[in-house]
Every structure is written in structure tokens, then in C-alpha cells.
Specification:
alpha/beta; Purple Acid Phosphatase, chain A, domain 2; 2 domains; globular
Length: 386
Amino acid sequence: MKFLHTSDWHIGKTLKGRGRLDEQAAVLREMLGVVRAHQVDAVLVAGDLYETSAPTAEAQQLVVNALLAMRATGAEVIAIAGNHDHAATFEAYRPLMKAAGIHLAGRPRPAEHGGVVTFPARSTGERVNVAVLPFLSQRYAVRAAELLSGTPADNSARYDEQVRIALDRLKAGFTSDAVNLVMAHLTVTGGAFGGGERPAQSIFEYHVPAAAFGSEPHYVALGHLHRRQELPAPCPVHYSGSPIAVDFGEQDNENVVVLVEATPTTPAKVTDVPLTAGRRLRTETGTLAELRERAEEFGDDYLRLYLREPARAGLFEDVHAALPNGLQVRIDPEFAGTDAPRAAAAAEQRAPGELFAAYCAERGVADQRVEELFARLHDEVTTADA
């Protein structure tokens, strides 16, 4: 039997103010073509369907239509909430989506109450069990009082323990005559970041080792990290990665969906199917004159530009006139002229958490808990429904 593993669609995500719904729609259409061509038994969407927990009506319409179209092929469709999604809304729409034949999970559930989705594969008639674990935040798994009083190692151990307990209880719903799968949205130890993840909900103080999944699953379908990768483990553990680069930090990532083939008695076989829809993101360096000469080469690509010339009045307007797809324009630090602009340019390339850590170091504050609290606060105030 065959399964399609995908995650981290981030529908509704903009890039430096530029809307990308048309690109995201093209990617989903391409994905639907893969579902049809391979006649998969199920589509597994491992979280972060949306960019924000309060998506626009247009973003919701795009996701719902995509899920319905995939279900119309005859495939089972199972989707879980990621850290960008609104878990309570997923739960509210769960009965309605179930009526349409789509399995939606916003919060962790016991195996017997929807935590394990069971169905017969249309290709073979054999049983499939999919244990689903939506995003489990550190605030949910580790109480605030413990976060304040415990060390980072203590907190990490508690989070690891809670996730392991959840996985063990879900795997109780597995059966020996079936293909048994796990789908989860979380950070696994040793996973490589893709570049666009939300730092407060990806920090490695809150992670689980790949060994936590055990040897029972035929395949573990993960979401959260945007880079396509496999983690060494007793069973196949894979991140599908995002199907489209969500920002310039992901410009070199390979965008794919993962085709999984398995039987109850054989290990999973995994094949990456490349996705090509959506504009390319690229970073280029040069003078305005040099970049203008290469405009034809750039085509419709979205650009991050570093200008190798001093700032002057009207320079940025001239760049945007010549290269309208130059969404981020900066002066190369070498040409900034003074230490202050150079420092500012360097700071712009650092995440808020890194800047706060540097601030603490300057003032002699050496407490990892303070940095963790800052990360969670920053995440709260930058979330759409804060």
C-alpha cells in the first residue's frame, strides 16, 4: 500500500509583504497530481497547514478545497495541527470534516477516542493504523511552575517523558496484522532546521530522540522542521520538509513530498517526489548596475539583495524600479561606511532570541530560563491570535 507524507504548508504565509496564495495553490495542485498518479491509500499531513492560527478566509478555502480534492481521489486524508495552527479550531471542525471523510486532529487524544485512525487500504484491503500526535507545546507538557523552578535539563527531561508516554499509549492501538504508522508534529533530537521555523517552539530544550518512537511503527511521518531529512532510529523516521520555501533562509532546501510503500510484514520503502511549483527564492550580491544587467537572468524569482556600494539618496527606490522582485534590499556591511550601520546590518541577520542572549551577556545575566521565557513571550506576541 502507498502513503503520501507532507507537512508544513504554511498557507497564507507572505514574504516581505508579498502575498503568495497563488504559488501555494499551484503547489497544492501539483501535490494533488502526485496523489492521483500514484493512487495512494492515504495522505498524511503532519501539521502547520496554515501560517497563522487566525488564517484568512482565502487561506482556509484553499486548504479545505485541497483536502477535499485529495479525498475525492479515494485516498484517506489525515491532518493534524502544528504549532502554527489553532488546535481548538481544528477540534471544532473535526465532526464536519469527518462527515466529508477527512480525519482532522487538533489535540492529542487516547487511541480509542481518535488518537489512532484505522481504515482498510483501498489497494490491498489490509488494515492501516495511524497514531496521530498533534503539536504538544512545552507549556502544555511542562507546567509553568516547573519551568520557573527547574533547570533546562529538568524541563527537557519532563517534556521527553510526556511525549514518550503519549506515544506509548497511542501505540497500544497498533495491531500485528496492519501497517502501523505514527504522524507527529515535533522536534526530534539532531534534526536540521530548515530556516523558517518559529524558534520559540523549536528550541532543542524541548525535543525527543528518534528512539522514542520505538521499533513498532513501519514509518514515522513528521512535521515541524522544514528541511527534508531522515533521522537514524529503530524504525524509519522522516521529515517531509515544507513543499515550498517559506523565506530566504530556505532558498536552498529541496521541496518534495514523500511517497511511502509498506506492507504489514515488510519495511517501508521511501521515495521523494520533487515539487517544482512556486517561485524560486535567491540571494544575490553586487552593485546596482551589475544587478540591473542580470535582471533577465532573475526572471520571476524573489530576491534578497546585498548592494556592494555605499548608501545614497534614492538608491533603494532605484533598486525597486529596476528589480521589482527585490523583496529585501540591504547594503553589504563592507560598504556601510561606519561601525553603526555595519552593526545594524549584522543585527538584522540575527534572530530576536540571539539578540536577547547577547543583551543578557552584556549585562552579566547567565540564566537559561530567562532566555526560554523570552522565547515563549516573543512567540506569544507574534502569533496572530495573541
